[in-house]
Amino acid sequence: MRHPIGVVAATASGRTAAATLASVWPKEVRVFAADSVADALREAFRACEAVVSFLAVGATVRILAPLLEHKTTDPAVVCVDESRRYAVPVLGGHHGANALAERIADVLGCTPVVTTASDAVAVPGLDELADLMGWPIEPGSDLAGVGAALLSGEPVTLSGDLTWPLPALPPNVTRVSAPEPGLPVIAVTDEDLAAGRGLVVYRPPSLVVGVGASRGASAEEVLETIDAALAEARLSPLSVRHLASVDAKADEAGLLAAAERRGWPVVCHPAEALARVETPNPSEVVRAAVGTPSVAEAAARYAGPGRPLGELVVPKRRSARANPMVTVAVARHRGRGRLAIVGLGPGARDLLTPRAVAELRRAAVVVGLDQYVDQVRDLLRPGTEVVASGLGQEEERARTAVELARAGRAVALIGSGDAGVYAMASPALDLADEAIDVVGVPGVTAAAAAASLLGAPLGHDHAYISLSDLHTPWAAIERRIRAAAEGDFVVCFYNPRSRQRDWQLARAVEILAAHRPPKTPVGYVRNATREGERVVLTTLADFDPAEVDMYTVVLVGSSNTRIVAGRMVTPRGYRWS
Questions:
Q1: Is the pTM of this model over 0.85?
Q2: What is the mean pLDDT of the chain?
Q3: Strand duo 490-494 + 462-466: pairing
Q4: Of 25, 88, 99, nearest to 61 (Cα)?
């Protein structure tokens, strides 16, 4: 098993930097030293998934050149110069080196120098696309030729099974039902299509092979039968997602050995679930033996509770051997749409998380409030479809995002702060079902951003309350305010005051004032971390609700909150030992 990151240095400065990486990433970094730096670098290259070389690029290349085999298997290599100004991905840019250079830059304060063409123009490289989707590429695919056409803006066609949630591709890529002669082609298919000049073939995990086997069936018999079934239907083994069977076969040695040889997972389902799957060749003999009239066909079609059944493309076929016997069936399962619900944070770019950036670049469609979309347009890949709308259209945005994901698209639904806090996650997940995959990306909340500017007002128990009565009756809101007041919680008010709702905040403060001393600290922040930021610290007695609007977060302290050196602090409430 390879070590994650090997580090090699030749000078005192390099060794200091290497020690810094080792201290920051102690579970990942191993520093290599040998009689010569060249020997240390070669040893690190053989033993690690990635290498950081504190040597010149030229020296690193000369030493490692004889060891190179293929970019998909060679370790990623990043060179850092003597003065630690630059981190340069030298090998495996799309296979970890670019990302590692970014990480090194964060630690050492240097500049990552990314030279891969696709990154320079924000277009995913074809091998990067395979990594992003987790798909194999058909051997012989013309990555260089089609990739050059993609980056040069020449017409490229995308064909095959296009229900998979691909990221945005540039405008020069046209989706077609079948390849067009003379144009470079990117094909997404499980069909047995040979790659070649001008063609890149991706293998999506669309096929599930259902297997039934008598006790004692060998791995050879299982694989012979699977291979024959796939060949008969002209389907690629590279698109096999997993082998499937009934629970009673979960310990079948031949089935498990066959799967291990090909690197296929094995998924076994309860007999009662398979018994409910409609199949063309049920057997009462099989039902009597394992509790379901079909194993191979039903297991191939079944995808789990609430999920669509696969389309049977190879009905049950028996092995050529008579005893023991293996049965195999193959079903095609369509790609599931992908909905990423992304919190953009309070507004400052440096408070937008790396995971949020990655999801924005992963999406083919971005749905959001127009002003939030404008904040991140520069992060979107060329070809990204944008669906922006104005204030008050939250339900429409949620419905649009879910419908696009159901159609098989890769969708990012964005919101400010954390998308799960008074934002878009709730209405979207109210509409989403098992037919799509959902990814949640947390963001820095408005409350957290405001609290950090005020001091530490949320240091003990606190409650968030929205004062908007558009969807919640005011009577219910008032009960919650009163409960928070009686419980002596710090209270953070969202949506505190608008032109149409100009009295609710004053009433909320009045309720709290009945349970708090007049000198209780109150802090409010308008446009936290954004242009026009305003931070005000006052008291319950002096607080003026007229100073507040919808861009403001208001925090009212508990009876224990105090002002310390001009900062709002709520003590933790216990002694430190």
A1: no
A2: 92
A3: parallel
A4: 88
